[in-house]
Amino acid sequence: MMINDPALMADLRKQSKGDNMTTTTDITIEFPTDRPNFTIVSVGSYSVAFSYRTPIGFNRWDGNGWITRENVWGPTTGKHINHLDGGGTDAKQSRVDSDTFDALLREVTA
Q: How far apart are CA 36 and CA 50, in angstroms?
């Protein structure tokens, strides 16, 4: 499910103005499982996935796929992470620890 409310989306658009120029970054919000505890927010050229309020993965859409963090929470968050990276053995071995994930996410969102 995607939010398709023009008024809400207008509130979520980020605008910066300067020298006769306005830049608008579109934001989309998806609920891939139709439940509010798993959300993917896309802003410009990247997306961040949240389990509840915790960022669990991001994708720069540069061909490298989702960067996901290790599951240190529980089975529901594990299902959300599996949804992003497929949940296979290779995917689980590719997950990064929380400190690394936070540093990489800061780079993407800077």
A: 10
